[in-house]
Amino acid sequence: MEFSALLTSAGINIGVCVLFLSLYSVLRKQPHNFGVYFGRRLAEEKFQRQDDYFSFERLLPTAGWIVKAYWCTEEEIRQVAGLDSVVFLRLFIFSIRIFSITCLVCLFGVLPVNYHGKEMTHNHIPAESLNVFTIANIIEESQKLWVHCIALYIITISACILLYSEYKYISRKRLAHITGSSPNPGHFTVLVRSIPKSDNELLDDTIRNFFVNYHGSSYLSHQMILRKGHFQRFVDRAERAYRKFVRVRLSVSERNGRSNMSRCGVCGVRASSFQLYRNKFIEAKKADLTNPEVVDAQKNCPGALVFFKTRYAAVVASRVLQSSNPMLWVTNLAPEPRDVYWSNLWIPYKQIWLRKLATLAASVVFMFVFIIPVAFVQSMMQLEQLKKMFPNLRGLLNKSFFARVVTGYLPSVVLLLSLYTVPPLMMLFSSIEGSISRSGRKRSACLKILFFTIWNVFFVNVLSGSVLNQLNVFTRPKDMPTMLAELVPKQATFFITYVLTSGWASLCSEILQVYNLVYNFFSKCICCCKQNTEYVYSFPYHTEVPKVLLFNLLGFTFAIMAPLILPFLLVYFCLGYLVYRNQILNVYYPKYEMGGKLWPIMHNTIVFSLVLMQVIALGVFTIKNSPVATGFTILLLVGTVLFNEYCRHRFSRIFEAYSAQVSAHITGFASEQCLFLKDMCAQDVIELDRDDEQSGRMQEIHQHLQDAYSQTPPSEGSSRSGGQVPIEQLIMEDPAQDASESSQELCDTVQEVSEAIHEHHIIEEGKAHSV
């Protein structure tokens, strides 16, 4: 591939980026697109409707959003979007810093050495082959390889220093987040599964008797995990009717400038009346243990949530083996209420290991099946093969411009489109695995996508010369360094174009929100549907984190092999930093908090990238017959592994603990080694419990535990604010039309509630007379 083909690909992507960014700056000003580009702000505020008047200012592209995104402080981002967004943006800060250093070293040191590696007559630069700029242009036993070895040391040492400082900084942030968070119901709650069933008593009584017998001093209460039945569907209908009526109240009050419905519309009930009545009615149904429906539901109960009086009691109960049979009375600390993945709590515990094995096998099979589109992509880069495969296009491919577009741009586009099928499938596999929390499911999907991306995008493309090369990776592992050293420089051109298409263009697609924009246009302008913003997207960490880590891997592995990739990567990280800050501030809503647990994944992947860079350099120095450089590279490789082990022992346990279960009496960073549930000292937890008891908060916490865990899905029930309706579910477009629909639905629901109460009272009176 010639340098001119690379310039053609870069020109196309620069044009696409400018077009998309200009469109975004215009479309975000249009009132009918506020739901697309300001979803988080709509979810957290009473959005003030603007008059739909015409203005030329709305049609002019501006860069004001860049200034606002850049000058927003990290603390403001943490308050708005949580610690996870801060950790994600710190990954970009690390990448910008390390690749700024790498660009300076490699562009001004390594690249000239590669270009003049052989004595040859050079052509005009646009006509030069890109191989001239790679390490393949260095002759054997050349003294110039010392430049590459020194550059390797500078990059590795700089990366380790920055990684350590970032790990320390994020650990401090995580500890501050843990100690500063409010009491979480998940700290007092234990999930119990694989409960033995008895024919002599209900499962409800079995759970109560077991924990009263063995944890009597600390046991508070419990809640059965039941499948959604007729009663739960009835409750969901009541809550949907209530939310519609509240939307009418908010919209009408904003339009009229006054609150005509000061309570809940025509019926005058309080905003939490449905929630309070719902809890009372559920308790009444639970108390009726002779009801055949209740008995049948408890027979199929997969587990229960057990509440304890103190955090320490919950920690002990979750860690202690409850039975001599480890497959019975299995206990784990429960996720926080908004993070519970209720669908997977219904999965029998004995199926979990089978599900994990099945999803692992399915993921591996899919990784190898995906080799087919990757091989097709690589064949597109060979012009002669394309002419053989498509003889009818031979005349078109003989034209230089079309040949540059096809070989320099289309392969990476095809691979990018093929990769869009991966995240939904991996998320499905993670759901089937049986994770009990939404954050756990997303972390599992993140790891699967990361492994898939590194294998199929990097290794398969590098080894795609033939299927035999791919099999040699497993049959000849000792030859891996030399094999990669031979093949990696040859694939530099493809990965440079991949950075342009999958990197630059995907960022512009992300900020433009193409899918949501098209959906919004068709629903409002074509189908004339009313706006329905009852769902706000959470940030897709499972897709974006692997993408950024892949570009880090490409940057490190090609730093001394093909330094031309570095400027394009640096532009990607700078643009991505601004784009994702804007998206986090305006679009995505944090529906649950992982507490920064993604950073160890990021750290380990970056260290793997450093090791891979050194292994490839080791193979290159071996092929080029430079034994001294090879020896120094081995020392650097050992030092990198030791650095990773030190970081693992120094920091990793902070991230292995649950979201927030440590004492508020942490006096310094040096005490962090005792802040983990696995080997945490009892003093910290007990002191935190004592503080709550002395301040009178413990009784309030106990009362909140009773209704904190609701099996209503987050999009239909109270998911964030302790029983209050999420604000993003209160936004509407046409209050008059919605009022006419919701008033009738509300009356029907109230009538059903009254009939259910009457029926329940009749049953109770009949039981009293029979007694």
TrEMBL record:
One of its GO terms (molecular function) is calcium-activated cation channel activity. Residues 187-344 form the CSC1/OSCA1-like cytosolic domain. It comes from the Eukaryota. It is found in: Membrane. One of its GO terms (cellular component) is plasma membrane. Residues 355-621 form the CSC1/OSCA1-like 7TM region domain. Keywords: Ion channel, Ion transport, Membrane, Transmembrane, Transmembrane helix, Transport. InterPro entries: Csc1-like, CSC1/OSCA1-like_7TM, CSC1/OSCA1-like_cyt, CSC1/OSCA1-like_N. Its main location: membrane. Residues 5-166 form the CSC1/OSCA1-like N-terminal transmembrane domain. The chain crosses the membrane at residues 6-27, 87-111, 145-164, 357-381, 401-429, 449-468, 549-580, 601-623, 629-647. It is a multi-pass membrane protein. Belongs to the CSC1 (TC 1.A.17) family. PANTHER family: PROBABLE MEMBRANE PROTEIN DUF221-RELATED, TO DEHYDRATION PROTEIN, PUTATIVE, EXPRESSED-RELATED. This is CSC1-like protein RXW8.
